[in-house]
């Protein structure tokens, strides 16, 4: 039987969709950049993927890549091994055409003690919990030739740093997806200055729970996803007391709330019709920072009517003011694991929240059995489509999603079945950076004949 890769290698796949996904993500980037205009033409994919003779990354014809910061034998500028568990990542402009990457490392203690994975080394002045010998962030400097010129640890003593997001003032928020207590409690969001180091003080107001990703609207309001089970996680809004206050301001407190779909009465997987618009409201979190013996945040708000979401993963903000978020899958009422039971089955949903109308709309539905299942991290680019990292059970892809609802392959992990993570574009839009998470972890820079969406 042919693999999913051979089935879909050169084609596109239609999924249920309405709305204008491509227009929304295109609005997140300027149509031109300082180095000249990008080619402008409609986007319907980039054709067949070309098999990589090095067996790492299959890309469309004309696209190229470099790979760096590998965990298998890689040494950072400070002399320490490259940490394992490459995950969420943000790109920031540097001097002389350079790009600064801040990269998460999704590591638990058992990954180091039992599996022998390299941890994030302790960072003087940026250690949250000295007893947490695992996750954190590293900072990488990549020059205009897309070559790594320096890298070092920037935050340590945290656990399971999964995804995160870029703030309006150009810092990186790294999110813990683990709520264990070691020397200190975990399950927080931390701020990392790409031009400096990480702040080891957790942002308590953003809550203690299994964080995934975060994005901001133009007013400085943050939106956060939670990848959790027993029960499922939620989609949150954090209104800081000091809106647009700059670096460190999020520590000043704010109001944390969870999304509730009016009258739904079940989890979000039950919605199966793209184009369906639902009215929502927000439920304030009574105790954003529970101790281990207190009721977890999601249980507090679900009891008050907040809507559970299985595998709430990526999120981003568009220039039109809308907020997009992803439910990576719905395992349905017959799920093998009781914690994975949901109202209905799907292989991915992409939602659009409109703060003006207080509604959400199901923009894209991935039915079970589609070639590209379980979208996870997702990002906006200047080329008229979203880029999503899939996290299914078998083949692993980077996919593009156009405003016509067409899903096309952009990259294939030809090495192994480890997931892509942390896709992020350079500020000029000419380079896509992305990680392969493990065995071994590595970071790619991808460039080629990008086409700009025709407006």
Q: Which tags fit this structure?
A:
455 residues, mainly beta, 10-stranded antiparallel beta sheet, 7-stranded antiparallel beta sheet, 5% helix, globular, disordered N terminus
**Radius of gyration, whole Å:** 20 Å
Overall structural class, as computed from helix and strand content, comes to mainly beta
Task: Report low-confidence residues grouped into runs of 5 or more.
Answer: 1-43
Q: Identify the overall geometry.
A: globular
Number of helices: 4
What's the average pLDDT?
89
What level of helicity do the residues show? under 10%
Largest sheet: 10 strands, antiparallel
Distance between the termini: 42 Å
The percentage of residues in β strands lies in 35-45%
How many E-type strands? 32
Describe the structure.
With 455 residues, the protein is mostly beta strands. Among the domains are: 69-209, no CATH class; 211-373, no CATH class. It contains four helices and 32 strands. The protein has helices at residues 4-8, 21-26, 109-113, 297-302, and strands at residues 13-14, 16-17, 32-33, 36-37, 49-50, 57-60, 64-68, 86-93, 99-105, 135-142, 148-158, 161-166, 172-176, 189-192, 211-216, 222-226, 235-240, 254-261, 277-284, 312-317, 323-327, 330-331, 345-346, 349-354, 359-365, 375-380, 386-390, 397-401, 406-413, 420-425, 432-436, 442-447. Strands 2, 15, 16, 17, 18, 19, 20, 21, 24 and 25 form a ten-stranded antiparallel β-sheet that branches. Strands 1, 5, 6, 26, 27, 28 and 29 form a seven-stranded antiparallel β-sheet that branches. Strands 7-32-31-30 form a four-stranded antiparallel β-sheet, with no helix packed on it. The radius of gyration is 20 Å and the shape is globular. The N and C termini lie far apart (42 Å).
